[in-house]
Structures are given as structure tokens and as C-alpha cells.
Write a structure and sequence with these properties.
The chain has 164 residues and is of the alpha+beta class. The chain has one domain: CheA-289, Domain 4 (OB fold (Dihydrolipoamide Acetyltransferase, E2P), Beta Barrel). The chain is built from four helices and eleven strands, in the order αββββββαβββαββα. It has a six-stranded mixed β-sheet with strand order 3-7-8-6-5-4. The chain has a three-stranded antiparallel β-sheet with strand order 2-1-9. The protein has a two-stranded antiparallel ribbon with strand order 10-11. Strand 1 and strand 2 form a beta hairpin. The protein starts with 11 loop residues before the first helix and ends with a helix. The N terminus is likely disordered.
């Protein structure tokens, strides 16, 4: 199994200390992770703009730094429930499209992200709904408290979308 975050471990310090990731709390039970440099900003209590005739999990965009940023609610995608009306927190993530352009996407969270270190020996299988997780995940690890945490493939999430 290669490196969990998609970058190879090249020095002893990284092997000992692990790779820095951001843990993003989707809801009370599920966290996901992204690489240290894929997380750009937090928008607290954003003003959502509704997009008509879109699926429940991606019915909003926000304006951030003069960009229209699509916001995905992964909890809604996985469990099919409607999004709550509270504004919450949005994590702004960055990714490249096929032309190499940098783009932004947002993920709705219930709380602010936290930094963590992950080592390759923490790797594990994806959680329940593995087919959906495979569409948008690079890998998965078990946190120090035993929680299974998928590592998002940010480009796959926003370019392919959570289509199913």
C-alpha cells in the first residue's frame, strides 16, 4: 500500500512523524481527511445561494474571494437526508482540473477542521457504503481513537461529483 495521502514518504522524519492531514467533521459520527495543502480556508456561517433543480447534497454555492464555490454536503449524499437550514461551516478545498487549473470546492461541516498526523501503518479498509467511498476516496486510515477516516480525492469529488 503506498502512502495514504498519495505522496511517497521520502525521509526518515516523515516516516517517524507521519503525514499532516486535516480532519473534516461531516457530522457527529463521520470525519474525512484531506491533505495538508488541499484545505485552503474556513467560512463560518456562510451565506448560501440555492441552485434550483439540483440534488439535495449539492444545492448550494457560496461566494468566496470573488469565486463561486460549489458546496457539497457529503452527509446528505451518503444518508439521503435533507440539509439542515443552519449555515454551519464550509471548508474551502483546492484541486486541479484536467487542464491544470486550480479550482475551489466547499464541503459542509459541523465544526472546524483539526490537523492530525497519519502514518502508513494506520491504513485500513473503507467504511460501510464502500462503493460510494471508492468514488471519492484515495485511501483510508484508522485514527488513534479507532475511527475509520476516508481520505478524500478532492478532484474526483468535485470534477466527477458525487453523482450516484
Amino acid at each position: 500500500m503506498g502512502s495514504l495521502i498519495g505522496t511517497s514518504i521520502t525521509n526518515m522524519e516523515t516516516e517517524v512523524d507521519g503525514v499532516t492531514t486535516w480532519l473534516l467533521p461531516l457530522d457527529q459520527a463521520v470525519n474525512v481527511a484531506v491533505g495538508e495543502y488541499e484545505f485552503v480556508h474556513i467560512v463560518d456561517q456562510p451565506e448560501y445561494i440555492s441552485i434550483p433543480r439540483t440534488p439535495e447534497y449539492c444545492k448550494h454555492v457560496i461566494l468566496w474571494n470573488e469565486n463561486i464555490v460549489p458546496v457539497i454536503n457529503l452527509s446528505s449524499w451518503f444518508y439521503g437526508h435533507e440539509q439542515s437550514e443552519d449555515a454551519g461551516v464550509v471548508a474551502i478545498l483546492i484541486y486541479n482540473n484536467s487542464e491544470g487549473e486550480l479550482l475551489y470546492g466547499g464541503i459542509k461541516l459541523i465544526n472546524i477542521p483539526v490537523l492530525d498526523k497519519v502514518k502508513n501503518d494506520q491504513g485500513c479498509s473503507l467504511p460501510g457504503n464502500a462503493d460510494k467511498w471508492k468514488e471519492i476516496s484515495l485511501s483510508c486510515f484508522k485514527s488513534c481513537n479507532g475511527e475509520v477516516v476516508p481520505i478524500l480525492d478532492v478532484a474526483a469529488l468535485f470534477l466527477q461529483g458525487a453523482e450516484s
